[in-house]
Design goal:
The protein has 200 residues and is an alpha/beta fold. The protein is built from eight helices and seven strands, in the order αααβαβαβαβαβαββ. 41% of the residues lie in helices and 19% in strands. α3 runs parallel beside α4 and α7 packs across α8. The structure holds S-adenosylmethionine.
Length: 200
């Protein structure tokens, strides 16, 4: 298995012209609607992690306009059973993502809901990769519910844990209190993602 640091060093994923055009469109949209998307470095890291571990069933909390979803979807395209479920609380943002992700419609389920409320009644849904990128102050709440839905050998990744670490002190305290190990990968100069492996 490739180490997280090695995955971080990998070059940017090679996308088709159509995918690059779609990403560029969402980037320009981001400026208009003021949506904070993942950086391309973070997207690339998520892509390589998912491909390396051959994860297939992905859950994302916080869709926004679908920028990070594209990286997640591109990573699972070679896997026949690969599927992404992504949850967004704001209706207009959800509608925008639905349009933006139309070409992936067979591989993605978009949900417009509060992630916690929706996942509480998720029944026997299970995911092997969960990306948490919603309301930063609700990170602990989202982590606790995500953990229950994680398959054995799965991974949870949390975005913005450095820049917005001050918005999630309860999350860091919980990890410390419960001796939960994690790695922080500095995908950007001023920010990074937290990778939690071996949770179950
Ligand atoms: C940082 S943005 C997500 C960016 C996206 N992952 C990307 O990189 O393209 C956070 C999004 O989470 C949504 N959000 C906030 N709280 C939420 C919740 N409780 N459930 C679902 N979505 C939520 C916000 O409306 C916002 O669109």
């Amino acid at each position: 298995m490739t180490s997280l640091d090695q995955l971080h060093q990998k070059p940017a994923p090679q996308f088709s012209e159509a995918t690059l055009t779609l990403l560029a469109h969402l980037k320009s949209e981001r400026l208009k609607i003021n949506t904070p998307n993942v950086s391309d470095n973070t997207g690339g890291f998520l892509f390589h992690l998912i491909q390396d571990r051959r994860y297939r069933h992905i859950l994302e909390l916080g869709t926004a306009n679908g920028y990070s979803s594209i990286y997640l979807l591109e990573a699972i395209l070679p896997e026949k059973s690969g599927h992404l479920m992504t949850i967004e609380i704001q209706r207009d943002t959800y509608m925008r993502a639905k349009t933006n992700l139309h070409t992936y419609r067979d591989r993605v389920t978009l949900v417009c809901s509060n992630a916690t409320e929706f996942l509480k009644s998720a029944g026997d849904l299970r995911f092997d990769f969960i990306f948490i990128d919603a309301l930063k102050t609700a990170t602990l709440e989202h982590f606790l519910i995500a953990r229950k839905l994680l398959s054995s050998g799965g991974t949870i990744v949390v975005d913005d844990v450095v820049k917005f670490g001050n918005k999630m002190p309860d999350f860091y305290e919980y990890l410390e209190k419960n001796s939960i190990k994690y790695s922080i990968i500095m995908t950007d100069e001023d920010d990074g993602v937290m990778v939690l492996e071996w949770l179950c």
